[in-house]
Amino acid sequence: MKIKLLFILSLFLFSSYTKEETVFWGPTGHRTTGKIAEYHLTNKAKRKIDKLLKGQSLAFVSTFGDEIKSDKKYNEFYSWHYVNMGLDEKYADAEKNPAGDMVTGIQKCVQVLKDDNSSEEDKVFYLKMLVHLVGDLHQPMHVGQREDKGGNTIQVQWFGKGANLHSVWDSKIIEEWNMSYIELAENAKDLSKAEIKAIENGTVVDWVDEVHEVTKEVYKSVKVGENLKYRYSYDHLETVRTQLQKGGIRLAKILNEIF
């Protein structure tokens, strides 16, 4: 009887773990991207954003898209956090989610923010969502395969504890580095104006296709059940840092164009 109860409990805990496991950049990642974006905003954009957010920073609101997941009235926005694509596909050729995806979500946010007839309430909501979604775009497993839910069903270990490939890239590599979002943002790479311009270049769809190339390498980087440790963190931390920085620079570009 005890064995049966323990078995049932273990299934419950595993189910809860996989369900609640972070499925987006963790808070530190999102806040890092928001903070980096603040460094690249024009003064005009800063003033208008500050007015809308009533002094709250982009870093502070960057986790909004995850926070509202606990409220069922926001379920319609769930599919905005990712794009499902085959590894050999470009976004233009991939089957689209009828409920919308990351690209259509970002486009909607921009549309609302540019519309002079949008209410202040809507502008605040979609600004917060935009900050979050551009961050999500640059997490490689958000442009993953449908069959494994962007790596969520690819089970691995992280220093001997159960994890999945998606969670490793969302938060575990960042957490292992043990730096605050401010430290991560302040220690982002020094880039020339030409390098920043190159990162800003392109459309949201171009960026999705670019990130998808990183996604392919992430899928190749592990075997199911593999115990990932210091070496994996060492090999991939720079990729994570690069993606966070690109997300911040591109978020600032979008916001500067809107405001």
Quick summary:
The protein is mainly α and about 260 residues long.
- Work out the strand percent: under 5%
Low-confidence stretches: 1-23
CA-atom Rg in angstroms: 19 Å
State the domain count.
1
Strand order of the largest sheet: 2-1-3
Question: For the record, what is the CATH homologous superfamily label?
Answer: P1 Nuclease
GO biological process, one term: DNA catabolic process
Pfam family, one: S1-P1_nuclease
Protein name: S1/P1 Nuclease
Keywords: Disulfide bond, Endonuclease, Glycoprotein, Hydrolase, Metal-binding, Nuclease, Signal
Can you give keywords for this protein?
endonuclease activity, disordered N terminus, 12 helices, P1 Nuclease, disulfide bond, 259 residues, globular, mainly alpha, 60% helix, metal ion binding, glycoprotein
Could you walk me through the main structural features you see in this protein, from its secondary elements to its overall organization?
- By secondary structure, the protein is mainly α.
- The chain has a single domain (2-258), classed as P1 Nuclease (Orthogonal Bundle), CATH 1.10.575.10.
- It is built from 12 helices and 3 strands, in the order H-H-H-H-H-H-H-E-E-H-H-H-H-E-H.
- It has a 3-stranded mixed beta sheet with strand order 2-1-3.
- Strand 1 and strand 2 (161-164) form a beta hairpin.
- Helix 2 (27-39) crosses helix 12 and helix 7 (120-137) packs antiparallel against helix 12.
- It starts with a helix and ends with a helix.
